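Entry 14. Ran structure prediction on the chain below.
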Amino acid sequence: MTWEPELAELAHRQSLAAELGGAERVARQRATGRRTVRERLDDLLDDGTFAEVGSTAGTARYEDGELASFVPASVVAGAGRLDGAPRGRDR
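Output, structure tokens:
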């Protein structure tokens, strides 16, 4: 038995979650002068230190056993470092 189909679906979910609900939602947020949560985290935390937890959580819809769409949860959680000090679960 191989885990390739499950791992491929997780990777697909992660890529969909990284889109933050799609280009239209991101554009609507930027139109109000706000940046995305991941952009704000990138600016706040030390480079490369944010470890996200639960990026594949959300609502999935399947058609014929295949992932048809995925809407990520509206929360981004994890841990990182701020000026070298641990923040979040990394404390």
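The longest strand covers residues 66-72. Will compare against last week's run tomorrow.
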